[in-house]
């Protein structure tokens, strides 16, 4: 049965992919490398900054240490916060807060699994006044393998069960909301049902990859999902 809904972050909670791409481009320019939009789409969307930068730099023939990558990511995190704080309005997706309230009314657990740093996620959720909705948050700095590997989603299940030992949550009880191929693959590898929301890729593309596809949160019929999971 449906017990938990787990969100991706960038491209699902907040519309900030353009900001991340600009910041990655700035890092590459600082490394005397020319940014490539198709490369960003292939190696960065849905993945952690560490995996994204490591793969881009490796592809360009650069061998960098973990410490060097950590310093690049720290600089990007500072720049990201500055960019967010300079915005007049936080680019949270429409209907999100109403949808979170709707999930709570259905007594569903709510979690989040992202390639972003935990501190970055909490910073945005707190700024948007929705942090209290999320019982479990797994960030890219807490797992060794980025999406499309399932590690983050499997860790989320463990944490839900640690919070409530009567929950007996399994992957089959979870519904994931994702916006990228890497994220969808990660959730499917974790044996979870996936909703593809057409924020980053078109609806028909999400429809091909995920169990359900939606344009907006209000399009998701929880009763229909529950019927499928219990059938």
Describe the 3D structure.
With 231 residues, the chain is an alpha/beta fold. The chain has two domains: 4-15 and 91-230, Rossmann fold (3-Layer(aba) Sandwich); 17-85, DNA polymerase, domain 1 (Orthogonal Bundle), CATH 1.10.150. Helices cover 48% and strands 11% of the residues. It has a six-stranded parallel β-sheet with strand order 3-2-1-4-5-6, with helices on both faces. Strand 2, helix 6 and strand 3 form a beta-alpha-beta unit. The mean pLDDT is 96.
CATH overall fold name of the largest domain: Rossmann fold
Q: Note the overall shape.
A: globular
Number of individual domains: 2
Distance between the termini: 9 Å
Spell the H/E element sequence: EHHHHHEHEHEHEHEH
| Sheet with most strands: strand arrangement | 3-2-1-4-5-6
CA-based gyration radius: 17 Å
Percent range for β-strand residues: 5-15%
Task: Please give the number of β-strands.
Answer: 6
Q: Report helical residue fraction.
A: 40-55%
Task: Pick out the low-confidence regions.
Answer: none
pLDDT averaged over residues: 96
CATH superfamily of the largest domain: HAD superfamily/HAD-like
Architecture blueprint of SSEs:
Elements: E1 4-7, H1 17-30, H2 37-43, H3 49-59, H4 66-85, H5 96-105, E2 109-113, H6 118-127, E3 136-138, H7 151-163, E4 174-178, H8 181-189, E5 193-197, H9 203-209, E6 212-214, H10 222-230
Parallel strand pairs: 1-2, 1-4, 2-3, 4-5, 5-6
Helix pairs in contact: 1-4
